[in-house]
Amino acid sequence: MTDNFDELYMNLRWRNQFGNMSVLPRHVQQEIDCSKGVLQRYDEFQQQLKRGQLNETTSLVKFDSGSQKSAQLLDKVYQEQAGSNILGRQQQVLLQRPDWHAPWKLMRVINGHRGWVRCVKVDPVDNEWFATGSNDSTIKVWDLASGKLKVTLQGHIMTVKDIAISTRHPYMFSASEDKLVKCWDLEKNMVIRDFYGTLSGVYSVDVHPTLDLIVSAGRDSVVRIWDIRSRTCVMTLAGHKGPINKARCLAVDPQVVSCSTDATVRLWDITAGKTIKTLTHHKRNVRDITFNPAEFSFTTACTDDIRSWMLPKGQLLTNFQSDSLGIINSLSCNQDGVLFAGSDDGHLSFFDYKSGHKYQSTQTIEVPGSLESERGILASCFDATGLRLITCERDKSIKIWNQDADASPETHPSLPWDPTIVSQRF
Amino acid sequence: MVPPSSLSSLLPEPKQKTKSDASLDGYPVNAEGQDNLPVVGLIFDSLQPELSPVVSFSDFVPLRQRNFNMEIPLPTQQQIDDTNKRTKAFFQALLLKKSNPAGSKIKRNESSGNSGYIEYRSKNLLSANSESTPHLIKVVDHAADPLHLSNFKIRSVYAPPIDEPPAPILHKTDANLSKEERQKWEIPAAVSSWKNPNGYTIGLDKRVALDARYSDSRMGAHDINEGFVRLSEALGEADRKARQELKLKAEARKQLAEQESKMKEEQLRMLAQRAKEEREKKRAERFSGNIIHDEAARERAIKRDERRKEAEKDLNLSKLSVVDKLKALAHTQGRDISEKIILGAAKATEVSELQYDSQLLSRGANAAVKRSEDQLYDSPLFIQEAISSIYRPAKFGEADNSSQQIIESINGEARFEELNSKRARIESSQQNRETPHNADSELGKKKQRH
């Protein structure tokens, strides 16, 4: 025992006195490392592994190469699929190169609404005009090229929350907080149908691309499917546990996708009247859905969290670099793989759709005469060509943005791309 | 990062324990071989409670991290057409069903107006033998206004309950708040110290809680610094001393003032004494100058003086008016009588009826009890008659010259008796002429006389 104590004491003294000398300073170590050969380095790596010093990975599961148990677990998870463990995935992520996109700049500011502008849709047929709905309960139709007001549609008595323009009829549908969905005839500029029966404010409306149906959803937390001709509510899709922010239609299953304040996104089977899948990855109020026009996927956003999903099953596709974005009110996607996210505090963020890389972040400038706190993007929309972005803002203005034509990757490099495996969020 | 065991904590609690495979059928299982996707198995099977939603690790891993250049083609026209066909057929059927539901038939006017007749035979109980009398009863449907609003209020049921297996929650829920944190967020119920229309009993603790004066920090034990105690004691002592000093000073000043006043009095008295002595000396000198020797002459002179004084007094009295005479008389008799009573102008208030003390008539002993809400005092300040006399013009015209008039009348009573009576007659005739009614009546009288 005494020998043992002696030895312990010696060790302790030695470590206290000369411990700092056992490790070389970093810059010296680096120089020594540089002069080492490949084989030498591999040997050191192996030794480190044995000692268990390589624990500082950001891996989800603690990886212990020596242990039989963890190897079994890995086998079970990945079913012996080579290269798809965490390290493999990290390498894959590092290999990804996001596309370069030209930065966006403000092109035009349109004033005219007397309240917050809440929604916007571009004419899907000719791409010549766009319509905006506002808190002043009007819908205004503007010329896209010149930005001039074409017509003001009055009929709602409360905020117009959403607009849908049909590609197959000369109809426009508008949803309002006054519990009504109105059908406007764009040839006569008149209301021709009212869809009664919603119990509370309607927040969203969309036209079915191939059928004579419209889908509305709102505060009463059910999605309603209406027959356009007979004005009857054909089906009610219940399942959300909170007000529904957006409901969107697709031509194939799932034909309705809705997102709600209960932090879920639901894909609906409208022939069965049931939810196909509930996406519960989001933590908070999911405020917007946008479909990618170039591929069969869609994107949803909640506070600080944008994710894209593969259709038709709804698997997670990408986590966007969307930390610290704040409340995201609006999402838009164009054909070139640009995803736009408009924040509640007036920040515009542009993402590369495929990689989830945020390549540009700017802020709107409030219209002279409005407060700085009135910066805020409420709705957005790309035009049919995807070259112009229309944003509706809290300062009652509509802003049109386009890409800088002179920009090149050299002159306008995008924001740095440093992917982390941490991009799997919970 | 999250260790794998915490994934199971993301799952909701199992709702029911009974196992039924049928309910799992429609459930999306993530393992799949199609679409060239990596086949991913389920993990933590043994950890999962029965019938809880199936979660796999792949749910958390973005697909593009595994296969970056994955192509996701848009639906083909064929797919769209197929879906369209299927959905269209379904919705057409649904619409048809909706437009005329199976249960309801179109009610025609005739059917609703169709009235049936019922023959009703009542048995007459009193006359057992007699035949029952038949009654014909017509049954008519109650006409309902089709446009009338429904009597049943549409209850806005938000988020109707649905029968659906619970979805796995794939995000981290915020950690449960601790009790302290929850208490921090608790907002006390609004309790007003001024309004309580329903008269609820409000607990003392609630009252204390809502009163800012009695916050927790203040209600705690008071730790008063020793210095404060000493300071307050010292202040009290200083105060007492100052008061005492002031008192002494005031007393001294008072004594000084008394002494001074005494001195002055003394001086004055001395002066008066000296003046008196001087006057005595002078008089003595005068008397010593012309001494009346005759005793009788002296007596006569005194008497003469007295008589002269009396005559002067009488003269003065005769010059006085009646009022002054009476006053003087009263004064001599030692009585103090006001002018009005002397002149007979003040009379006792004439009260036709008997007067009672109002307090005697009031109920019971407590006369001070109020009889109505408007009553401020327990007894009226004026009796009703007195009020009526107060607000009438005085009988003697203006109060100031009333006494003069009276004096005049007293003076000239005897002399102008005839004149007064004549004037009265003229006035009365004038009055009669003024009012047409009176004139008429007089005319009537004259006619009667004629």
Automatic annotation (TrEMBL), chain A:
Keyword Nucleotidyltransferase: no
GO biological process, one term: mRNA splicing, via spliceosome
Keyword Nucleus belongs to the record: yes
Any Pfam family hit: WD40
WD repeats: 110-152, 153-194, 195-236, 237-278
Intracellular or extracellular location(s): Nucleus
SMART domains with a match to the protein in the record: WD40
The entry's keywords: mRNA processing, mRNA splicing, Nucleus, Repeat, Spliceosome, WD repeat
Main location: nucleus
GO CC field: catalytic step 2 spliceosome; precatalytic spliceosome; Prp19 complex
Function (record text): Involved in pre-mRNA splicing and required for cell cycle progression at G2/M.
Family according to the record: Belongs to the WD repeat PRL1/PRL2 family.
Subunit structure: Associated with the spliceosome.
Name assigned to this protein: Pre-mRNA-splicing factor PRP46
Source organism (scientific name): Eremothecium cymbalariae (strain CBS 270.75 / DBVPG 7215 / KCTC 17166 / NRRL Y-17582)
From TrEMBL, chain B:
Gene Ontology biological process terms, A to Z: generation of catalytic spliceosome for second transesterification step
Region (Disordered): 1-28, 420-450
Keyword Nucleus: yes
Keywords: Coiled coil, mRNA processing, mRNA splicing, Nucleus, Spliceosome
InterPro entries: SKI-int_prot_SKIP, SKI-int_prot_SKIP_SNW-dom
Principal localisation: nucleus
Subcellular location: Nucleus
Residue spans of biased composition, Low complexity class: 1-12
Basic and acidic residues composition-biased segments: 434-450
Domain spans labelled SKI-interacting protein SKIP SNW: 117-279
Record has Coiled coil as a keyword: yes
Coiled coil location: 242-285
Self-association and partners: Associated with the spliceosome.
Family: Belongs to the SNW family.
Known role: Involved in pre-mRNA splicing.
Protein name stated in the entry: Pre-mRNA-processing protein 45
Organism: Eremothecium cymbalariae (strain CBS 270.75 / DBVPG 7215 / KCTC 17166 / NRRL Y-17582)
